[in-house]
C-alpha cells in the first residue's frame, strides 16, 4: 500500500508544521488516542488513552502522554515536546524527530541522535480501553536508556483540568495504578521491563492553542504520576501498556498483529474502486463503533466525527453507504441499519445520542429520510436478506409517520404532498447551528432537500414494496404529486431553487447548496434543463476546492472564515463555511447532467490534501469558505470520508461502463 502519510525533517523538524498535523487511533468502542506529530498538546482532546467508559460514550481522558528522554553515550536527548502558556517550548524533542509516518492507522515516530535511531509506535487494543506503545532501538553503538514520565488525568474529554487534589499512585507487581477519589475505574500502566517509580506532582499550564482558536479554555494542568525506566540495545524492543483493567491475556506484540490483520481484511473486503484510496478505507473503519443493547447485542453505530461528536442519526444514515457498503462490510451495514430501526418512533430517528447515555433526542427532519436512502443502498448492493423485513417495516413506519405528521410539526401538507417541518426555536435540518435561543439558519417551512429526500423515499418504498410482494402503487402516486409540486421551488432565469417554501414570511429564496439534492439523489426529483441549471448555480456560487459553501458569497450574511468564539463559529457554520461532504452529492449531480464522470471526479480530488495536512489519514469536517479554504472543525468526519468514497466509487464505475472514445 502506498503510504499517504510519510514525513521527514521538512515537517518533523518544523514546529509549526509538525504541531499542526494530528493523528488518530481508535478502538471500536468510541475511545481513541490522538495527538500531534511532534507530541505537544494543542487540544483538550489529545491523549494516549481517551477511554469510552460507557461505550460508545463516556469518553474520559486517562493517559495524556509519555514525556520521553533517551540517554545515549553519556548525553541526553528529548523525544517529547511541550508548549507552555508562557510561550516556552520545552523540551524540544521535535528537533530529534527524523521521520513520522502512518503504518495503516498506526502512528510511527523515528528519532535520530548521535548516530542512533529509535522507533516509537502506538496502537489501541481493538474492543478494549487500552493503549500500547512500543519502543525499539533500530541503530546504536551502545545501550540506550529510556526515561518516561507518565502524564495522566481523569476528566471528560470535552473539558480541561486545573490543579487540585492529586490522585493516589500505587506500585504493585511491576505495574502502576493511578486512582482518583470517587472514580470507579483506575488507570493501570505496565512496562515489560525496567523499573517504575511513583511521582505524584502537577505540571501546570500546558498551552492548548487549538482550543484558543475556538474561543475555549486554553490552559490545562496534568499530573506527572510515575516514571518508567528501561534500557535497550540494537534490535530490542519494549512495550508499555495502559488500560482500565488488568493486562490482556495475549502477548503485547499480538495486539499490533491483530491491528495489522484487521486492516488487511478491511482492504481485502473493499470494492475494487474503493481500494484506490486505501487510507480512506481504513479511515472509514475508525467511525464504526459498538452500540450494544439487549435487542441487538452486536449493534453498531457511527461516530460522526473525532474528536467531539458522538453518534448522530443523520450523520450515520448519510455515511453508511460510503463507510460500510462500498467498503464491502455487509454485516456492519446490516447491524447499523437494524440498530437504528429499533429507534424509529413516530416516523422519526433520533439525531443525537448523548455522550453519557441519556435519552436520545428526536430533533431532526431529515435523519429518517436519509435512513430510507441508506436502506435502498444496502438492498441494491446486497439484495433482500434476513434483515429485509425489519428494514422494510422501519422504512414504512418512517414514510407513514411523515405522511400523518409527527413531532415539531413535521408532516405532509395534504394540499401539495410536500413535507412541512419546524417550529420557533427548533432547527431540524442539517443546517442545525443554534446559539442559546437564536437559530442561526431558520428554515421553518418546506426545505428543499427535505422534499427531495421525501420524493426519493416514496420512490424507494414503492420499489421495496414490490420486493416484499405488496402493492406500492400508492407510494408511486404520492411521489408523482410531490414531483409536480416540486416545480414551485424553481426560480426564474435559471437561478436555481428556493431554499424553503411556505415559511413564516413566505418563500426563502436564499442561495444555498441544499438544492443540489434535487439532482444528486438516486431518484432525482428534477431532470433535464432545470437539473443542469441547478448544477451550474452550485458551481458558480458554492464550489470550492475543499467543499461547498453553505451560502453564496454575494449574500450580506456570508461569513468566509470559521473561527473565534462559539458564537462567531456557529454563526459562520452554515453561512459560508465550506463542507467537504457536499462535494459528494455535487459530483454525482454533475456526472448525471453532463455525463462526464471524469470531470466530476476532479471536484473531489483536492479533498485528499487533508490526508497529509490536517487530520492525518482522514478528511476534515469543514473548511473556510474563503481561499485558501483552510481546514477547520474536527480532524476526521464520517460523512466527509463516506461521501468521498461513495461518490468516487460510483464515478469510477460509471467511467468504466462508458464506451471508449476515439
Calculate Rg over CA atoms.
Answer: 26 Å
CATH architecture of the largest domain: Alpha/alpha barrel
Q: Output the structural class.
A: alpha+beta
Helix content: 25-40%
Give the tally of β-strands: 35
The major β-sheet equals: 9 strands, antiparallel
Note the overall shape.
elongated
Strand content: 25-35%
- Biggest sheet, spatial arrangement of strands: 1-9-10-11-12-19-16-15-14
Instruction: List low-pLDDT spans.
Output: 657-662
Number of domains: 2
N-to-C span = 33 Å
Describe the structure in your own words:
By secondary structure, this protein is an alpha+beta fold. The chain folds into 2 domains: 6-246, Beta-galactosidase, Chain A, domain 5; 270-655, Glycosyltransferase (Alpha/alpha barrel). Strands 1-9-10-11-12-19-16-15-14 form a 9-stranded antiparallel β-sheet. Helix 8 packs antiparallel against helix 9. The two termini are 33 Å apart. The model is unreliable at 657-662 (pLDDT under 50).
Q: What distinguishing features does this structure have?
A:
single chain, about 650 residues, alpha+beta, Beta-galactosidase, Chain A, domain 5, Glycosyltransferase, 2 domains, nine-stranded antiparallel β-sheet, about 25% strand
Break the fold down into its secondary structure elements and pairings.
Blueprint: E1 6-7, H1 9-12, H2 15-19, E2 22-26, E3 32-36, E4 47-54, E5 57-72, E6 75-78, E7 81-83, E8 89-92, E9 97-103, E10 106-113, E11 116-124, E12 130-139, E13 144-156, E14 168-172, E15 175-179, E16 187-191, E17 195-207, H3 209-213, E18 219-232, E19 237-243, H4 252-269, H5 278-286, E20 288-290, E21 300-302, E22 305-306, H6 313-325, H7 330-341, H8 367-382, H9 388-404, E23 411-412, E24 419-420, E25 434-435, E26 438-439, E27 446-447, H10 448-468, H11 473-485, E28 500-503, E29 506-508, H12 517-520, H13 528-541, E30 543-544, E31 547-549, H14 566-573, E32 578-579, H15 583-594, H16 597-602, H17 610-613, E33 622-623, E34 631-632, E35 636-637, H18 638-657
Antiparallel strand pairs: 1-9, 2-3, 3-4, 4-5, 5-6, 5-13, 7-8, 9-10, 10-11, 11-12, 12-19, 13-18, 14-15, 15-16, 16-19, 17-18, 20-21, 22-35, 23-24, 25-26, 27-28, 28-29, 30-31, 31-32, 33-34
Helix pairs in contact: 5-18, 6-7, 6-8, 6-18, 7-8, 8-9, 8-10, 9-10, 10-11, 13-15, 15-18
